[in-house]
Write a structure and sequence with these properties.
Blueprint lengths: L1 H28 L14 E7 L9 E6 L4 E4 L4 H19 L13
Antiparallel strand pairs: 1-2, 2-3
């Protein structure tokens, strides 16, 4: 009888630890706030969209710079949409040239 209780308690402990680890990871991967400061287009190599309700508390666009710094921007701003279009255009241009030109160094496909 004692072994069943021990196994049950061990299972609960394991479940608790696993759920707290995944919750902690989600917070680290999300933007907690956004900045309205414009980001220079020559510094950006990629972007990703963050959706509210999919593990994060706010909608945002996460731009990654050539120095691997993540910058969070609001999704509804015109300059953000223009920057996303610019990154898409640059990646498409570089992909056609197999990322060989100097302009394409450091970009992520």
């Amino acid at each position: 009888m004692d072994s069943r209780v021990t196994v049950f308690c061990l299972g609960l402990l394991c479940l608790f630890c696993c759920s707290s680890l995944t919750q902690g990871e989600l917070v680290l991967d999300c933007c907690l706030k956004v900045s309205n400061s414009r980001i220079p287009k020559n510094n950006v190599k990629s972007y990703a969209k963050q959706a509210k309700g999919h593990g994060c508390n706010i909608d945002a666009v996460v731009f990654t710079t050539k120095r691997n710094v993540n910058l969070c921007a609001p999704t509804e701003q015109g300059w953000v949409k223009a920057l996303m279009t610019n990154v898409d255009r640059k990646l498409k241009w570089c992909a056609k040239r197999k990322f060989q030109p100097k302009l394409c160094v450091g970009l992520q496909a």
